[in-house]
Design a protein that fits this description.
alpha/beta, 7 strands, about 20% strand, 7-stranded mixed sheet, globular
């Protein structure tokens, strides 16, 4: 399967975006033979699709609520209403979810999805069953800490806890407060921690 960026319903308006992230994660996946991962905060599905299309041995779980979170995230993506786009994103959740359902049909053996809060979805995942988790959901300090704390046990020893938007102050602080300073930084503000 060849990745076709024009299939994505709403692409990020910055140059490179998820494709840069995708290349960083693909390299991590390839170099470490990672086969089971989770992406928290899938949004339009651009990164999710990139990884599924370009990593033929990867089984990827996506998690996203696909609803407005008015009491969430401070500097994060999902606190605006659909009528008030944030950062150029329309938050067309129905369109996003429809695209995810298309991918689930196209890659039934390798793509799964949980439409829920990340702190509830983790209850459905067995401890030590993931090779990596990519955290890019609610960007508030409290939520990033919570995602790291709840999803870290789901990653096997020697696996990777990783995420996006390290440049955002509360994300950076949450990453260091929960994981310490053994973080590797990659292009497009991707951070990686080896468990």
């Amino acid at each position: 399967m060849v990745y076709d960026p024009f299939r994505v319903k709403e692409r990020e308006n910055k140059e490179g975006g998820p494709v840069i992230r995708g290349k960083v994660l693909k390299q991590l996946i390839d170099e470490n033979n990672l086969q089971f991962g989770a992406e928290l905060g899938v949004r339009s599905g651009e990164l999710y699709y990139y990884l599924i299309a370009n990593c033929p041995d990867l089984h990827l779980l996506g998690v996203d609520l696909y609803e407005i979170q008015p009491e969430g995230v401070g500097e994060g993506h999902r606190w605006k209403t659909l009528a008030e786009p944030f950062g150029g994103f329309s938050h067309d959740f129905n369109s996003y979810y429809t695209f995810i359902q298309e991918l689930l049909e196209e890659f039934p053996a390798r793509a799964t999805f949980i439409k829920d809060w990340t702190n509830k979805a983790c209850d459905q995942i067995e401890d030590g069953s993931l090779d990596f988790v990519f955290i890019d959901a609610d960007h508030s300090y409290k939520s990033v800490c919570q995602d790291i704390e709840l999803w870290s046990p789901k990653v096997r020893e020697g696996g990777f806890i990783t995420g996006h938007d390290y440049w955002i102050g509360c994300v950076k602080r949450a990453v260091h407060d929960t994981l310490g300073n053994s973080i590797t930084l990659k292009p497009d503000h991707v951070w990686i921690y080896k468990k």
